[in-house]
Structure formats: structure tokens, C-alpha cells
Amino acid sequence: MITLPIKKQWFEKIISGEKCEEYRKDTPYYRSRFDRYMGIPVQVQFRNGYRKDSPSVVCTVVPHRGTGRSKWGAEPGKSYIVLSILEVKYGLEKGSN
Question: Is it the case that residue 21 has pLDDT exceeding 60?
Fold first, then answer.
């Protein structure tokens, strides 16, 4: 499972179901993590912070390349690795891995 830190603002919107995409810069680092899963569902743990006991949520996502929505934090016209959230499996767990 891939674990990604996420800001509280976006974490809460994912938990509530309001936000259905998360964005990562299209960099060599994120390409190395997501290229093998492009177009394939994969589980990702979003963690609100860097500590192991930070609140987290596990989601099923499908990564693809594209542009994001500015209301969800993307810069207009910029290319991202877009993580389309299909399902929020469980959330607000602390210290789960």
C-alpha cells in the first residue's frame, strides 16, 4: 500500500466525500510510485501528517495523468498524476499500517 501525506483541508474533504480526486506533481519520484498502476485500481493510505499515529484513511484510487480542479488545489493548466478516488474504505484510524 502506498502511504501519502495530505493536508487537513483535503483530508477532511476526502473523508466527507466532497473531494473525489487527489493530485501529485508529475515528478520522477511520483512516476516511480504510480506508473505501474496507471489505469489500475490501487489502495492508497492518505495520512494527515507524517507521524504513524496521525489520522489516516485508506482509499481505492485509479492513477492517471491529467489536469486537476483548482477548487481542489490544482494549478490551472498544469499536468498532474491524478488519483481518482473510487472508494473510501475506512478512515480516521490512528497508527494503522
Answer: yes
